[in-house]
Amino acid sequence: MSDPPTVLFVDDEPAVHEALARNLRRRQISWTPAFQQDPRAALAQATRSPPAVAVLDLLMPELDGLALAEKMRAAGVDCPILILSGCNDFAAAQAAINRAKAFRYYVKPCPTDDLIAGVEEALAQSRPAGQGTAGVGDQALDRLAVGVVVIDQGGAVVFANQRGGALLAARDGLMLDSAGVCRAERRADSEALAAARREAVAQQESVALSIERTEAATPLRLVLMPFDEAGRILLFVTDPDAPAPLSPELIAQMFGLTPSEARLTAALAGGLDLTEAAEACSVTKTTARSYLKQIFMKVGVSRQAELVQAVLSAAAAR
Fold it and tell me: Which domains are assigned to the chain?
């Protein structure tokens, strides 16, 4: 029988460790907690024996949580990371998502049950070392003018490319709340976003909507795509004035597509749904569906989300 996975908690305050240890003993957990007060000692420990999950305090002397996370990544420690912060700081939340690739971002005091749930979900969704976020090349994602955000069933952000993180941090239309959940600036839009997320998961179809902004006249355009069996959603956030992220010519070369197929693929990879992509390519939706079948066959995928992943991953390798 294999040993239970280790979850490493790093916080420079002894009282935090004592409270966590006491509360965890009262819960039934299937993992072993380990505690470190010194972030440099924690780095050495994680490098010698990588934990299954790491829970890092944001503000620590000498080496803060984000710097520790980056050093762990550089040392080859590729476990899911949860960040704990003592302040409701949206810039810190953005940095945690983009720099540390944080799985969760919590604001203290965080209920123990919430933290346990986050740890257990991280354990369930952890991936093999060296694999990018759900197989999508991070380099390709960061090249895009479109924001790419991965959210879980509760709306919490588990990944954002550079553009997505910047849009969330700007808090103009979209934003992060203190629990790391992606919300809209207006309550009605937040409700529409939550409904679209549920619809995308239930129907296993892409859902499009617009989010109003305060600082810009044009709304943000969103497309939500079912991403995996865990119910995560791939969220594309498009500024109508942003340039196309990938050229159809490049896509045609990579996958052997016809010019018409490549234009449709570029539109879909840019965050448009099938109806919008058909309109952008000046074809009917029926024709677009016909193209899409051929595209799927040539690329070797069966769903639109898989097509987008394949395009971005191929771009990252060039």
Answer: 6-125 (3.40.50.2300), 136-238 (3.30.450.20), 248-316 (1.10.10.10)
